[in-house]
Amino acid sequence: MKHFFKIIKYIKPYYKYVVLNIFFNILTSFFSLFSISMVIPFLSLLFGTSQKIYTVPKFEYSVSYFIDYLNYILTTQIESKGEAAALLNLCLIILILFFLRNFCRYVSLFFMSPIRNGIVHDIRVDMYDKILSVNLPFLSKKKKGDIISRHTADLVEIEWSIMSAIEMIFKDPITIIIFLITLFYINFNLTLFVLALFPLTGFVIAKIGKNLKKSSQKGQNEMGLIVNKIEETITHIKTIKIFNLKSYMKNKFQNDNYNYKKSMTSILRKKDMSSPLSEFLSVLVLIIIMWVGGKMALSNSGIQPEVFIGFVAIFSQIIPPAKSFTTALYLIQKGNASAERINEILEIKNIENINSGEKITSIKKSIKFKNVSFSFGNKKIFRNLNLDIKKGETIAIVGHSGSGKSTLINLLLGFYEIENGEILIDNKKINCYKKNNIRNIINVVSQETILFNDSIMNNLTLGKEYDLKTIKQACKQADADDFINKLEGQYKYNITEYGQNISVGQKQRINIARTIIKNPEVIIFDEATSSLDQKSEKKIFKFLKPFINIKTSIIISHKLSTLKSIDKIYVLDRGGIIESGNHGSLMKQKGHYYNLYNSKCFY
């Protein structure tokens, strides 16, 4: 239950609605009680067993006073208007009480809606914020589908189980308590006997509920696998088709889906057992009461027949809220599995702190990697790596696949923490600066262009304000303006998910354009022009040359047309820089760079 209570803390901002909901639930219970209690004088009048009272009874807190007072009113009605009129008035009073009961019930639900939806809204926001703030190493160990499932299926489960349970918890215990107090007033011993039967039913329900939580947790984990499989399929659909993996993927999906079906069937059977089981146990208790109380009424020992019928009527009204309360316990146990998975996200400790440290707005001297060592899992990527990049310099980094080129960039941006050594900006450790400042002055134009499901304009500006002239000038430099103007809506043209409605080359042009708009101090081109033909690449670099010349630029590329014009090329291998120089000098050395070139790793 601890995960349930962690979710419940989100109720705090809505305490005013909670108070109003409880208040109208109390009114609902009172009007319900009074409307049902009217059955006692109704039966007394109908069967002619009511005692006529002509004077107002002396006030006291007891059931007998309530019955006597009703008899006094009925006597007055019968004497002045007759029995039929008194019966009609009694029916009208019951009708009014039922109307007030249902009106108050609606108002209580009216105030429950903002509580229910507000809690789910706040949880969703906090979960999303955690995902935005978490360290990359944590996310790299998690399946995307599982994280998506926690934001969707688990949150829906919270909404429909725990939130439904909260609604019942605010309403049903109030009704049960008020009705039980009334039953104690009617007959203390009989009510005490009723309460003695409740622990047995509670034990059976708790046993099933505990088993239900375990099954629900398994079901939610299996849903995570299904979502992950769907997400993988959509993302890699081309690869699946190229390698004719349809049957293979379908079989894996069917297996996961079948396991989920089995788990959910088990869960639903246990959940569906709660209603008939609790109803049977409630009816069993009612039958025992009818037998024990009926004997008392027949022998006139402590309760009158019409009062006993009223007792049974009131107790019968405890059964629905008791049943609902039981259902709520089942729902909490079922939802507790989802709450545990959601709390795993909400309680993530690997949070990236991007605002601590000194402010930095520009690089004045250099960026240095000094004896840097780093491992990814069990694989050693860098061993005492040294690299010095001076302000305004344009360098290239080359190396075979897996040599650590992209990892170098990730370390510079603070996505991963180094094991040994130092990364320095202006001879000061990079950890001394705010990460968000570092990322403002460094920008990566990568091979994998990420575009959002939004307009081209919003994909270029990414939430910042720029004038249209600056944006269009940047698009011209990136050779993107021409194709954008040919699109319907031009800069308002909406890019679909993953940028599927524009070409790979067009995506890269937009990516380059938004880097120019951002105007960072350091630009990193990580295979940025890999999807462009040689003509387009030359055209873009011709436009970019004035821009790059005033920046510190790092180019990672396999294209010789890009590397030949760069003064300093660093060759990365075996965890460090093994060669450096321009293209001509490196070819003369006939070392690693020469071998890479001759093996046609470059083109």
Describe this structure in words.
- The protein is an alpha/beta fold and 603 residues long.
- The chain contains 23 helices and 10 strands.
- The protein has helices at residues 2-8, 15-37, 39-47, 63-81, 83-133, 136-140, 144-151, 153-186, 188-235, 237-242, 246-298, 305-316, 319-346, 405-412, 435-441, 456-461, 468-477, 481-486, 504-518, 534-549, 560-563, 583-589, 592-598, and strands at residues 366-376, 379-390, 394-398, 420-425, 428-429, 442-446, 522-526, 552-556, 568-573, 576-581.
- The protein has a 6-stranded mixed beta sheet with strand order 6-7-8-3-9-10, with helices on both faces.
- Strand 1 (366-376) and strand 2 form a beta hairpin.
- Helix 9 (188-235) runs parallel beside helix 13, helix 11 (246-298) runs antiparallel to helix 12 (305-316) and helix 17 (468-477) crosses helix 19.
- The protein is elongated and about 120 Å long.
- The model has no long low-confidence stretch (mean pLDDT 77).
Explain briefly what this protein structure is:
With 603 residues, the chain is α/β, with parallel strands linked by helices. Helix content is 65%, strand content 10%.
